[in-house]
Amino acid sequence: MLNSFSNKAILAKARAMYGNRLTEDDYNEMLRKRSVSEVAAYLKGTKNYADALSNINEATIHRGQLEAMLRRDLFNRYVKLCKYENAKGREDFYYYIVRESEIDQILRCIMLLNAGEPEKLIIDLPGFLISHASFSLLELAKVRSYEELLEALHTTPYYEVLKKFPPDEKGQIDYTRCEVALKTLSYSHLIELARRSFVGKTEDEILEIIKIDIELTNLNIIFRLKTYFHKTPEEIREYLYPFSCKISPSKLNQLVEAEGKDDFLKAFYETRYGARVKDRDYLFIEDYTKRVNYLYNRHLLRFSIQAPSVLYTYVILSKVEISNIISVIEGIRYDVPTAEIQKLLIL
After folding, report:
1. pTM, full prediction
2. Cβ contacts of residue 259 below 8 Å, gap of 6+?
């Protein structure tokens, strides 16, 4: 009886919160703004962000601060939803959002080390994560070398992954290989936890959500490495996550072997994913895959009766909204034509 109440509470609350999302009219209003301050002021007046931005000074806020506040707000909303979940043994699974954030900060540290600017990590370090992380984020912010990075992570599973990728003779750490290795570790652990924490329809839905997200990420990787870095099919395969869902091995091979952008897109449109967005004219492959993921998760949030699935999809859809807001801000900041910014929005 208690679990049934918990399930219904999460479904109702998540859907109500999603109902406060930004609309197409909201985005059109934001596109009329001319600065980050004006966008922030507008968001402050919406249902979704009024509380999170209630204390900001619109006149002085910058893009990094606004993005950090939006991500903190999503984390807080997620924590509130998790409090409705009272089933024992699922705590480790729901911790996934923290693990994702940890990996994001580690990768940002690596990027800044490669750029020779590691001291910048502290500037946008998410304060809300400090008390939840499995290692000291403040120690991570002090890192100034690869050796210090390993030392900061020596008690975590991330250490065993990163020690395989020492800097080259120019002092550069292979960011992409580190990213694939860290996220493969995270995905593997998440799938294992999903199988351990759930059963039946809930397990099936959660695993499908996760694997679709991974598979769409693989499509992004294939396209980017093929189009922008001219990697060979053999090289591309080394960067793919070893998980699949709706793309057969033969179709994946066709995508990897595609001669160029046009051949790739032709093969992509023949997949179950591509068929859903053939009518779109996006600038980047990520926009196609984001929309596919958005449509799939929006459908689940509306119609699934599995609370853990709805909770997970709510986070994915909220991340899409934050990404849309950042696209608007960046477009305004760099004076991109409104029509071009609109093409980047996932609605």
Report:
1. 0.92
2. none
